[in-house]
Every structure is written in structure tokens, then in C-alpha cells.
Amino acid sequence: MRTHIQILGAAAAIVLVTGCASMDDTQRRTATGAGIGALAGAVIGSATGGSAGTGAVVGAGVGALGTYIWSQNMERQKREMEQATQGTGIAVTQTADNQLKLNIPSDISFAVGRSDIQPNFAPVLDQFAAGLRNNPNTDVRIVGHTDSTGSDATNNPLSMDRAGSTRSYLTARGVDGRRIVIEGLGERYPIATNDTSEGRARNRRVEIFVGERPRG
């Protein structure tokens, strides 16, 4: 309980800091998101039997991405990506915090054990890059995942390399690399069982998130 109180107190302090007059709008929004994310992460970590401290750190990282809006530009980009990915198995959704999410399975994005862009992934990224160029007030986060085959020493850098390859492809098509953050999470966040080949195929994926910042 003491640990929980300390975490919640720290998160609350982060939120209070956002009132500092020396912060600009972006810094204030980021700090607020980090505080809220830490609070949510601590609660979720505790409720699911995990570490509240670990949950707070993860939540703060997610929350620090900021508060996003769902504008006509975002709705248009979502429709364009739905059309571009129709029949490919790529899922295009709007998240609860107003981000556009693309969940891209391995049979579209990368061959097993490889980090180079597959030919059928390229047209999707071409359309995606065009949408990003048309809406420069957005942040992009690319997250690579693997299945449980192999060790962390292999999976962690592989997942990061896949995210990095995706970023490099987008920047080569005119997207400012400073807008793009990449992560490689290895096998840590499966969305299906790793006990079957079908499940492992679903876990080998790349997720791309796009969030539009409010205009200050």
C-alpha cells in the first residue's frame, strides 16, 4: 500500500507541475499526459497482479505522447488507409485516445527473422506517408513485436530493427523523421497464444500509431 501511495503521489506531482508558468503548451500537455498515464498504469498494474511501479512507468511513457484530437484530417486519413489496406489483413482503427492505429501482421510487413520491408507492404506505406505529409501536425509511433520463438537477445533487436525499417521507409518518402518515435518490444506483448503457428503469426507484427496535436 505504501508503494501505491508513493506512486500516486508522484504522478499527482507531475500533473501539478504542469501549472508551471515556464512551460510551453507542448511541455504542459506532455507532463499532464505522463502524470495521467502513471496513475492509470499504477492502478492497472496493481489490479492485474503486476507491479504498480512497473505499471506507472509504462503508463507514463504512453501518456507522455500527449493529448490528441480526432479531426477531419484524421478521419480522412483513416478512410484512405481503410481503402488502401482492404483485403490485406491490416486492421485500421481509432483508439480510445484519438490515435489512428494500424496493426500490420507479419505476412504483410516482414518475413520471418527479417527486418526489410516486403514488397506488398510498400504500397501501404506509400499511402500512409502521403497522409502524414498532408497532416504535418501529427506524431507517429511505430512499435515492433515478435513471437516467443528465439531468445530476447534475438527478438528485442529484431523488433526494433523492424520499427526502424518502417521509419526509414517513411522518411525516404518525405516524412520528417523527428515526428516518428520507434519502439521494439520483442515478445513481451502478445495478442494471441504462442502455442500455435497461427497465434505466433499474429504476434509477429508492427503497430503504427498516429496522433494529431491540438493547435495552440
Description:
- The protein has 216 residues and is α+β, with helices and mostly antiparallel strands.
- The protein has two domains: 2-63, no CATH class; 72-212, OmpA-like domain (60s Ribosomal Protein L30, Chain: A, 2-Layer Sandwich), CATH 3.30.1330.60.
- 50% of the residues lie in helices and 14% in strands.
- It is built from eight helices and five strands, in the order H-H-H-H-E-E-H-H-E-H-E-H-E.
Helix and strand layout, with pairings?
Blueprint: H1 2-17, H2 25-47, H3 52-63, H4 72-84, E1 91-94, E2 99-105, H5 106-109, H6 122-134, E3 138-144, H7 152-171, E4 180-184, H8 197-203, E5 205-212
Parallel strand pairs: 3-4
Antiparallel strand pairs: 1-2, 2-5, 3-5
Widest sheet: strand order? 1-2-5-3-4
* Radius of gyration, whole Å: 18 Å
Through-space gap between termini: 40 Å
CATH architectural category of the largest domain: 2-Layer Sandwich
Number of helices: 8
What is the highest CATH level, the class of the largest domain? Alpha Beta
Strand percentage, roughly?
A: 5-15%
Low confidence ranges? 2-65
Overall mean pLDDT: 78
The level of helicity is: 40-55%
How many strand units?
5
The domain count comes to: 2
Helix/strand class: alpha+beta
Largest sheet: 5 strands, mixed
- Choose one word for the global shape: globular
CATH topology of the largest domain: 60s Ribosomal Protein L30, Chain: A
CATH homologous superfamily identity of the largest domain: OmpA-like domain
Order of helices and strands: HHHHEEHHEHEHE
